[in-house]
Amino acid sequence: MILVTGATGTVGRAVVDQLLATGATVRATTRNPATADLPAAVDVVRADLGDPTGLPAALDGVEQVFLLSGGPELPVHDGNLARAAARAGVDRIVKLSVGRAGDPTATDPIPSWHRAGEQAVIDSGLAWTFLRPLGFMSNALHWAPTIRATGTVHAAFGDGRIAVVDPLDIAAVAATVLTTPGHEGRVHTLSGPEPLSAPEQTEILAEVLGRPLRYVEVSPEASRQAILDHGVPAGLADAIMALRATALYEFTSVVHATVEEVTGSPARSFRDWALRHRASF
Ligand SMILES: NC(=O)c1ccc[n+]([C@@H]2O[C@H](COP(=O)([O-])OP(=O)(O)OC[C@H]3O[C@@H](n4cnc5c(N)ncnc54)[C@H](OP(=O)(O)O)[C@@H]3O)[C@@H](O)[C@H]2O)c1
To answer: Where is the NAD(P)-binding domain (predicted)?
Structure first.
């Protein structure tokens, strides 16, 4: 059995669907089973990664874990899960991390949280695989309110390029790694097929939506406020802004062939992602 944590989120839902498509037996954790809305074939259990008391029941009979958490408590969550998994006799943890977690000079919060989380997984003594995606294509959903209201995209750091990756491809890699041998002890850095700036993503969205859109460069403070308006807590908004500033670094514009190497299918384009999410804009 494979346990998927973060199963109600962007990546986790897709991991669940793709695992079910392989015929795997899937259990999923959520803090709110009543609203989880997961497929009927999934064994849904209530668990909070911040509360280790519920984890033994969630891990009973589990061979592999897809580990996904977020926010400042991420190192605590990963440590709780890793220790409980070791006690439960789990074989391997596949952790969703972040692109620069392996770079010790990346000291902004999100890579630092994930670096600590990866270390907790290593310290558990279990086999592991780390997936380190660059920015998600789905971050463009943050632009939907101003696109709908005024046909504009408000973003900061427009000079930077990120080889954004489709969450479906992250999930495809996760499902492959969880169901085929040979990925133990490996780090997979995941990108999309081309580096794109926010103005370039705006152009692609305009083509897909069939109406003109205008890119408006805003200050990092205004961009932070937009994230807050999206319902993201302040600590996480600060961490996201620090990560976004790194779009100006070379690292984020490097294209990695990993999605195709692992899954056998080329990484999906931002245009593909936009076509699937037209209704949101
Ligand atoms: N966005 C990016 O550009 C980007 C890039 C690289 C890496 N990442 C990483 O990707 C992860 C976020 O993935 P996502 O966008 O798919 O997530 P998401 O849509 O924000 O969903 C978060 C998931 O985490 C679960 N969760 C949160 N707190 C929990 C807790 N205390 N106990 C158990 N589960 C908890 C939620 O489950 P319930 O609410 O159902 O309990 C939910 O399923 C983060 O680790 C982030 O650092 C993001």
So the answer is: 6-181
